[in-house]
Write a structure and sequence with these properties.
The chain has about 60 residues and is mainly beta. It contains 1 helix and 3 strands. A hairpin with a 2-residue loop joins β2 and β3.
Length: about 60
């Protein structure tokens, strides 16, 4: 039975199609496979003002 190693990355959301391409290519060379992704929003206070920031969460796995 295959044992898996997991990694979760949180990156500031970028709507550009190839924004993560370079990073994912490098991770793929190390055996990581993207399993799923989703976006999250959170309120962040900067300079006394609240603002909503969006993040992409990437879930990866590779055999141990």
């Amino acid at each position: 039975m295959t044992k898996w190693e997991y990694k979760v990355l949180k990156r500031q959301f970028a709507p550009l199609k190839d924004y993560y391409e370079t990073e994912l290519d490098e991770l793929g060379k190390s055996g990581w496979e993207l399993v799923s992704s989703h976006t999250e929003s959170e309120e962040v206070v900067e300079f006394g003002k609240g603002k909503i920031k969006h993040f992409t969460i990437l879930h990866l796995k590779r055999p141990k």
